[in-house]
């Protein structure tokens, strides 16, 4: 149930973000979802990509500081209050959410990528409450049109 997220530390210098995407493009690695947060000196790019192992290998070869992190993707319907319900379930279970962002999906539902304080417990609680989680293969192949 865990998904590998590719995280890259990027200096806040012109062209660095473009270089990351170029390296992935050259290896035919699709970015299914991403989040970029920055400070004055650096940025943190978090991505769900079609081939996380090859992605980290390629970026490290190019001198980027990158790592793989386990996250989960929770499927929720597009209706008011659904995200709040998921967050309340996690809160009531004593879990905190470190960060989250959306995963591009087809259809009426949205998937939320999240890093929780205890991923195993988060999976157990959400599954028990009837929520479906994306499988890794499903997340990596979104919007990839079958190519690697």
List keywords for this structure.
148 residues; VC0802-like; 2 domains; 6-stranded antiparallel beta sheet; 6 strands; 36% strand; globular; disordered C terminus
Low-pLDDT residue intervals, each spanning 5 or more residues: 144-148
Which percent range describes the beta-strand content?
35-45%
N- to C-terminal distance: 21 Å
Can you tell me the number of structural domains? Answer: 2
Structural class: alpha+beta
CATH class wording of the largest domain: Alpha Beta
Question: What's the average pLDDT?
Answer: 90
Question: Could you say which overall geometry the principal axes of the C-alpha atoms support?
Answer: globular
Would you give an account of this structure?
By secondary structure, the protein is an alpha+beta fold. The chain folds into 2 domains: 3-70, 2-Layer Sandwich (VC0802-like), CATH 3.30.2130; 71-133, VC0802-like (2-Layer Sandwich). It contains 5 helices and 6 strands. The protein has helices spanning 16-26, 52-61, 82-92, 119-128, 136-141, and strands at 3-11, 31-38, 42-49, 65-77, 97-103, 109-116. The chain has a 6-stranded antiparallel beta sheet. The longest helix is centred in the first third of the chain and has 11 residues, at 16-26. The model is unreliable at 144-148 (pLDDT under 50).
